[in-house]
From TrEMBL:
Pfam families registered for this protein in UniProt: ARM_At3g06530
GO molecular function ontology, one term from the record: snoRNA binding
Family matches, as InterPro entries: ARM_At3g06530, UTP10
UniProt domain At3g06530-like ARM-repeats: residue ranges: 67-255
Name the record gives this protein: U3 small nucleolar RNA-associated protein
GO BP terms: maturation of SSU-rRNA from tricistronic rRNA transcript (SSU-rRNA, 5.8S rRNA, LSU-rRNA); positive regulation of transcription by RNA polymerase I
GO cellular component: 90S preribosome; small-subunit processome; t-UTP complex
Amino acid sequence: GSTDNVSVTGEVAITCLKKAISYFHDHSDYLKNIAAMIFPLLLVMPQTQGLNLKALVLVNKINWPVYQNIAVSSSDEATSIPGSLSSINLKVINSLAGNFMAHPEDNISWFVESCNDSELSKTLFFFVLLQSLLLIKPKGDEFSALFGSVFPILKAEWESLVNAGDVLLDEFNSEVLDWDCSAFFDQLLYANLRSLNAKVMVCIFWKLIMSADSSGNLLDDSKIKDLFVFFASSKFKHVFSKHLHFLAAHCSVSPARLLSKFFTDEGVPAAVQVESLQCYAFLCRMSQDRWQTELLVEFPSLLVPLAGDNQSVRVASMNCTDELRALWRRIDCSGKINGNNATWFDFLGELLLLLDQQKTLILSDKKFLPSLFASTLGSSCHNILVPQNMENRFDQPTKERIIEFILGSALEFSNYGKLMILSLLKGIGNAIMHPKVAPMLSRFMKQYYDRSRKSSQKFSNTETRIMCLLLEVESCAMSSSSGGDDLQYPLLKALQLDGMTSDDPAYIEPCISVLNKLNSQFYTGLPNEVQVLLAIQLFISRVCCHS
């Protein structure tokens, strides 16, 4: 029968292994391959236990670092005793884990090579990794090295499993995260090994980030970012929800600042932005006093995704502001806010209330939020998109404090984040040229002026758009009665084109931005000598553009 065939095949395999070990025991290159051949046999399965136990006896004769001290004693061979196979497997895996952790960076490559052609080898390898993180608590550089070795392999293997399309994790139970490898042994009998491997990997990822927290090994931001993006963008991200929350809450010195990077930086996938916003909301619901002020202070970062194009991201951002307002109300009721923070705390509460009251319009029309800020923070007339009397929502000192709060935070963002905030507040007019913002235009214009130098850094598309926006604001200011001599320099400089720059969008677009805003009031308000310079420059620019 089939049992006899398995027995005969097993005897042949053991005989071949014995011969190979005796012939090549002192040839390291061949020994490496023999060690890989015997590796999947070290996991004792009910249907092949005879073969497995003989392999465990043989492994003592292989002089291979990972196989030290994993022999099975005679008492373990009483496999008729209930639970004995699990006991044997746990003992073997613990020994392999200890040997692996002695030199993880050296051993990891061999494990990976040994698992290439066998799903069962991968199962045993994942058991070893899981048990390694349970038994041994590496610290400092050891943990960093282990993470650097293990994470890329797990990530690649996970993506391979997901892309294969035959793994189902719809009914994943988060209780599994607290299991050790022995809790999975019963599933070896009937489970699809690929699905089993996926569950074990979810546990390994959990133990990996738990090890970082419990050992005091704070992951650097790049590692946290890699983990977060991996979890958040996974097809089965529901199995990583607890991972994401733990990662956000425990693995960074500044959780709010870390999460805000995912929705204020350019090019982050929408799925990752949504997950980061949901984690931000999760932190708002927690009762950790040490984060509360930080979460509130980071409010301006939520305006970036709220002003974006993706509706799912915008909804997640609005939900986040709802949770932030709930946090604000809890702090307000507790009276925990101190005198130094009282000023911004009060107007932030009013601002969050405003967004809450207008959230239906904010989410239904992307153009509404800029109009809302233009009406409530600017000095212009009423906007038809906005309900009446919004311009009277805040007094002038409060408007100025809100603008300073938002712009001051925005300057810490990436260029993309800066552009989104400046675009959102463009309607408030020259008030956007806050003392903290004006130097940014000065830096851009210096770089613009130095464009003829070979060493001059090229403008990115985002930088060009920021410069155009600020020049438009300054042009409008010059065209009004509030314009001043201090605004003339950057505008005139933007109009300077020559043969070297006339075909470069980074120099043409700022020039066009200024030209589009010029009018007679602007021109007549200039001193006579500046009017002459402007006329000459416009003539030169026209010649350059048509040459």
